[in-house]
Amino acid sequence: MSRTVAVLGAGVGGLTAAATLREILPATDRIVLVDRSFTGGLGLSLLWVLRGWRTPEQITVRLTEAALPGIDLRTGAVERIDLEARTVDCGPAGSIGYDALVIALGANLDSDRLPGLASALGDGVAGEFYTVDGAVALHDRVEALTSGRVLVLVAAVPFKCPAAPFEGAFLIADQLGERFTSGTVRIDVFTPDALPMPVAGPAVGNALVDMMGARGIGFHGGKSAAGIDARTRTVEFTDGTTEPFDLLVVVPPHAPGAAVASTGLGLGGWISVDPATLATSAPGVYAVGDCTALPLLNGKPLPKAAVFAEAEATVAAHQVARYLGCDAPDSRFTGEGACYVELGGELAAKGEGDFLARPAPRVSLREPSTAYHREKERQERDWLARWNIRS
C-alpha cells in the first residue's frame, strides 16, 4: 500500500530530508515537498551579497524535478497543520494527507515586533541582510555612507546564524575601507546577550569581542532594544538609554510562522523536538532546522544554522523510514557542527565543536585564515551544485 510523507519547506533541511527519504523508501511511497517558491537565495551567501562579493543571481537556487527525481514538488504556502486529521492545508494549492511529516519551515522575520523598526526599514534609515533584496540594498547604503555611525543591532533572540551580526560588522568595516580605518565612520554592535554566541561559551564570546576591538568595532552586550525612532535616528533600550545612528543595521526579530505555531508542539510557537531523533510529541511528526527549539544541557537552545538543519534532516529521514517500518539506520543527531566568521579581506575564523556535549557545549574558535574562507566557498559551491541540477 502506498504511503505519503510530506516534507514542508525547501530550505537546506527540507531538501536534505526529501532526498534522503527518496533514497530509502520504496518507489511506491509518495514524497511530497511543499514550498511557497522553489526559487530562493542561499542563506550561506547573504553576507557576501552585503559585502558585494556576490550578486543575487550567483547565489540563487532554482529547484527543479531534475534535482529531486521521484519527489512531488507542490508549490503553495503552508497555512495550517492539522495533527489530528494528519493533513496539511496549503490554501489554494489544496490539502495534503500524510502518513508521516517532516516540518522544515524555518523562521520568519517579524519587524513589527520591535516598535519603529518597520518604519525605519521602510524609510531607508535601517537595513537588514537576512533577505537577498535586503542585503543588496544595505550594500548600497553602506557604499553611500561618507561619515557617521553604523549601529549593528540584534533586535531580539533567538535569530538565525549566531555569528551573522558580528560578521556583518566586520564585512561592513571591510567595505568602508579608509572611511572606517580613518575614524570617519564608526561601527558599534549592540545585542541582548552578554557576549556574542553565548551558547558557545565565554571563551568564544570573549575571543570575538577581542577580534572586534582589535579592528576598532565597539561591542555592547546586555542591551535589549525597546524601540526605534526613524525620525531622530535613535534606538531606545529597555534600560532607558538611547543610542544615535546614521545607519542602522538590524537583525530583525525572528518568529515561527503561523503554520508552525498552529501545531502547538512547543512553547512560543517553536517546535520542541527530541535532541537525538528530532521527533515531536505527535506520532510520525518530525521537525528540523530553524523552526525547532532543541534544548541543550546548558539550558540554551541549539543555534539556528543550516549546518545543523542538514544534519538533523538526515536523522529525521531515517527515523521517518523506521516509523513506517522500513529498514533504515537508527541514526542520532550528534550536535556536532561548525560555522565560519568572516572578517573581511578573505579571512575567516571557524567555530566548531559538540553542542550536545555534557555538561555543556564544547566549542572552540579557530584562528582566522584564508583557508577557512576557502572552505566556506567550497561549501557554497557544493550546495549550489547539489540543488541547481538541470535536466
TrEMBL record:
Cited Pfam families: Pyr_redox_2 (PF07992)
Domain FAD/NAD(P)-binding: 4-312
Keyword Ribonucleoprotein listed: no
Superkingdom of origin: Bacteria
Enzyme Commission number: 1.8.2.3
GO molecular function ontology, one term from the record: sulfide dehydrogenase activity
Keywords: Oxidoreductase
Keyword Transcription: no
Name this polypeptide is given: Sulfide dehydrogenase [flavocytochrome c] flavoprotein chain
Organism annotation: Nocardia otitidiscaviarum
